[in-house]
């Protein structure tokens, strides 16, 4: 039983560290430059709140969590689109 409590505490500490790191990454991330989903091209907010995450120091916004699967299949392709849009500004 004592070992389970120790494992639970260690897991909680690890989870807290991950959440803190993700929050720090989000603060340091470059802002998302588009008004549309990089995967579908849909206007952000049209399907509710955008699904937002950070990838390689870049904030990414998708129109919905459903687009995440397509993003994860070809992340380089979509990250390149984001980078190109920054150059166009």
Structural class, judged by helices and strands?
mainly alpha
* Biggest sheet descriptor: 2 strands, antiparallel
Task: Provide the helix percentage.
Answer: 40-55%
- What's the N-to-C terminus distance? 59 Å
Q: How big is the Rg?
A: 17 Å
What is the string of SSEs from the N terminus onward? HEEHH
Q: Total helix count? A: 3
Overall 3D shape: globular
Question: pLDDT below 50 for ≥5 consecutive residues: which ranges?
Answer: none
Kindly report the average pLDDT value. Answer: 83
Strand order of the largest sheet: 1-2
Total number of domains? 2
Beta-strand percent range: 5-15%
Number of strands: 2
Give me a quick take on this structure.
With 89 residues, the chain is mainly alpha-helical.
General description of the model:
A hairpin with a 2-residue loop joins strand 1 and strand 2. The protein has 89 residues and is mainly α. Helix content is 54%, strand content 11%. The protein has a two-stranded antiparallel sheet.
List the helices and strands and how they pair.
Elements: H1 2-28, E1 51-55, E2 58-62, H2 67-73, H3 75-88
Antiparallel strand pairs: 1-2
Q: Keyphrases for this structure?
A:
89 residues; 2 domains; 11% strand
């Amino acid at each position: 039983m004592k070992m389970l409590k120790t494992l639970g505490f260690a897991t909680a500490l690890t989870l807290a560290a991950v959440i803190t790191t993700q929050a720090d990454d989000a603060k340091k991330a470059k802002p998302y430059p588009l008004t549309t989903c990089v995967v579908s091209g849909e206007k952000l907010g049209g399907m509710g709140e955008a699904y937002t995450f950070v990838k390689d120091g870049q904030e990414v916004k998708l129109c919905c969590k459903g687009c995440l699967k397509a993003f994860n299949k070809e992340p380089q392709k979509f990250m390149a689109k984001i980078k190109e849009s920054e150059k166009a500004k």
